[in-house]
Automatic annotation (TrEMBL):
Domain Signal transduction histidine kinase subgroup 3 dimerisation and phosphoacceptor residue range list: 290-352
Membrane spanning residue stretches: 6-24, 36-62, 82-109, 121-139, 151-168
CDD domains according to UniProt: HATPase_UhpB-NarQ-NarX-like (cd16917)
Enzyme Commission designation: 2.7.13.3
Protein name (record): histidine kinase
Species whose genome carries this gene: Herbidospora solisilvae
EC class name: transferase
Length: 471
């Protein structure tokens, strides 16, 4: 009677799990354990079939909770468990020992894998499964003893009970996710990460917000996204954020999905704050870089020339023929004016004030050694947008001349739909990379500060494209 109750418990628990979690294979596997158990106990079966329920149970324990052998270690463990059936056909106790050792070894590896995995090992399911495996390995040799037989049945019966308790526990955790929506209404501006970490029970969880072309934290610092250890959060088809978490959480996709859905609006609000902080950070860095450039140019160029002028005039005063020295001082002064003019062009190009963006772009094209076709349709634009667009075209054409080996370039500067699109295309060799050098990377930062997007495509020639909001 006891053996039939144990088999029925596996069968019922497996069916319940199948209904509650249809995407997982854990329910069907556990139901298979129950069916094979009952078939073995109440009908004659060959030794291999008689041990099949134990192999399926080992498969279930190794691959819990999804029922899928998703890693090399788990696939190897499942393979050993089923290979133990062959050993069991010759020597049942040896086959049982091999399969049990594989189950224990995989669980130990999972336990050492991550902090979340350590918690999972002591969940009702895994704990009862390990108790059952150890009990069988210890008592099976003396299973003829009534006490040992009773303990074996109790140990086996704990597994489906632990599984049902685990299902109930997961329902409770999803209830905690529902409470997350309420808690987020009162959480501080930087508290979403802590709330998600507490809800998902992963203290190392980090949130990265999509800003421009990277994920950043609330301070604007870049967040590294490891492969196989993050979940992307989208909202209305738009990339919103990423959760960097323990890979073990992938075994509970419904929990992650529910948490992301619950925190979606709050993440959206924090993403706006993170994006603003990133732009402020980039603006500070760009301002500091510009300040250092001006300081360096003044020190290395203008200051040295200015110091030479008084010295030259002093020599002229003491000279019988001061005219050549005065001419030299005049030339030096004109050179200083040229340096100052070039320096101020780096701040705001005078040609923009004189001719506007369309005229400035036409002048850049005329000065380029590579033939350039220009399309420019622009209206009134904010000064900062004009300046950034001008530098995008200037740097793009400079790269065409220096590196592209092109025979022709095309520049399009067009305003439409409240944005200014700037595109420089050439038929050269390609190879542009925003991660190398400072020119394109500096442009990308300038464009980002204005709230725009910057992209370089070098698959066929090179295309530099920037989109800047005009509002």
């Amino acid at each position: 009677m006891g053996e039939s109750l144990v088999g029925a418990a596996y069968l019922v628990a497996g069916i319940v799990g199948w209904v509650v979690q249809p995407r997982y294979r854990a329910g069907p596997l556990l139901a298979g354990v129950g069916a094979l158990w009952l078939l073995t106990k109440f009908g004659p079966a060959p030794p291999v079939i008689g041990s099949a329920w134990a192999a399926v149970l080992g498969h279930w324990l190794i691959t819990f909770p999804t029922g899928r052998a998703e890693t090399t270690v788990r696939r190897a463990g499942v393979g050993v468990v089923y290979a133990a059936l062959v050993v069991a056909a010759i020597e049942p106790l040896a086959g049982l020992a091999v399969g049990g050792a594989a189950v224990v070894a995989v669980q130990v590896i999972r336990w050492r894998g991550s902090a979340a995995a350590r918690r999972r090992v002591f969940s009702p399911v895994t704990l009862t499964g390990l108790v059952a495996v150890v009990t069988v390995l210890g008592l099976k040799p003396v299973a003829a003893d009534p006490t040992a037989e009773a303990l074996l049945q109790v140990a086996f019966g704990l597994v489906p009970a632990g599984y049902l308790a685990g299902l109930f526990h997961r329902r409770m955790r999803r209830g905690a996710v529902a409470d997350l929506v309420v808690r987020l209404g009162d959480v501080q501006a930087n508290g979403i990460e802590a709330e998600l970490a507490a809800t998902l029970r992963d203290p190392a969880l980090r949130v990265g917000y999509w800003a421009g072309d990277r994920y950043v934290d609330l301070a604007g610092r870049e967040v590294q996204v490891p492969e196989g250890g993050a979940t992307r959060v989208d909202r209305a088809g738009e990339r919103l954020a990423v959760l960097v978490h323990d890979p073990v959480l992938f075994e509970e996709p419904e929990l992650i999905e529910a948490a992301c859905a619950a925190a979606g609006l709050a993440l959206w609000n924090e993403r706006l704050a993170a994006d603003l902080r990133l732009r402020i950070r980039q603006a500070r860095e760009a301002t500091e870089a510009e300040r250092r450039r001006i300081e360096r140019d003044l020190h290395d160029g203008v200051q040295q020339r200015l110091l030479s002028i008084p010295m030259t005039l002093s020599l002229a005063e003491a000279s019988r023929d001061p005219a050549p020295l005065i001419r030299e001082a005049r030339h030096a002064l004109l050179a200083v004016l040229g340096d100052l003019r070039a320096l101020t062009q780096g701040i705001h190009p005078p040609v923009l004030t004189e001719r506007g963006l369309a005229g400035a772009v036409a002048e850049l094209a005329a000065l380029s050694p590579v033939p350039v076709r220009v399309t420019a349709r622009v209206g009134d634009l904010p000064p900062e947008v004009e300046t950034v667009a001008y530098y995008v075209v200037a740097e793009g054409l400079a790269n065409v001349s220096k590196h592209a080996g092109a025979t022709e370039a095309v520049v399009r500067v067009v305003t439409a739909g409240g944005v200014l699109s700037v595109e420089i295309r050439d038929d050269g060799v390609g190879g542009a990379d925003t991660t190398r050098g400072t020119g394109l990377r500096g442009l990308a930062e300038r464009v980002a500060v204005c709230g725009g997007t910057f992209h370089v495509d070098d698959r066929a020639g090179t295309v530099v494209r920037a989109v800047l909001p005009c509002g």
